[in-house]
Amino acid sequence: MNAIRLCNREITSEEYAQVKSGFDQHTLEQGVAIQHADRFTRVAESDDRFIGCASGLAYFNAQQYANWFYLTDLFVEKSYRHQGLGSALLQSLEEQVTSLGIGHIWTWTAGYEAPGFYHKMGYRIFMEMAGWYSDGSSRVGLSKLLC
């Protein structure tokens, strides 16, 4: 038997493919369908110029989407903030994913930035990691029941 070595290096793309294949094989052995993610996005434009978006991932399990949507991005250009655009983008995306049969949405945000906004939109904190950012503020996980 060859000696096993632990190495401090990046994995190659071939090794990453091997890891992914191994996880997929294990998932199937447990009787669980392999997921793939579809991105859904709402974009705001002004004079054909991008000014913001709401975007995230819906995970497809065999015949339907999983019951959770991951909001990865909610962004509005600074000069367009505090005008309801973020709320409109988020609400529009929530309506779209609800129409897909998805019942929950979740996201991460910075404690110094947006928990108050999400609270007004009906989100609740499910996780807070104190001291995440350099100023000592938290990283906050939020979720919402959609239907």
Tell me briefly what this model is.
With 147 residues, the protein is an alpha+beta fold. Helix content is 26%, strand content 39%.
Write the SSE topology.
Layout: H1 13-29, E1 35-46, E2 49-61, E3 64-76, H2 85-99, E4 104-110, H3 115-120, E5 124-129, E6 139-145
Explain what this protein looks like in three dimensions.
Strands 1-2-3-4-6-5 form a six-stranded mixed sheet. It is globular. The mean pLDDT is about 95. The longest helix has 17 residues, at about 15-30. It has one domain (about 45-145): 3-Layer(aba) Sandwich (Aminopeptidase). Strand 1 and strand 2 (about 50-60) form a beta hairpin. It has helices spanning about 15-30, 85-100, 115-120, and strands at about 35-45, 50-60, 65-75, 105-110, 125-130, 140-145. About 25% of the residues lie in helices and about 40% in strands. It is of the alpha+beta class.
Features:
147 residues, alpha+beta, Aminopeptidase, 6-stranded mixed β-sheet, globular
The name of the CATH topology is Aminopeptidase
The parts where pLDDT drops under 50 for at least 5 residues are none
CATH architecture: 3-Layer(aba) Sandwich
Number of strands: 6
- Tally of distinct domains: 1
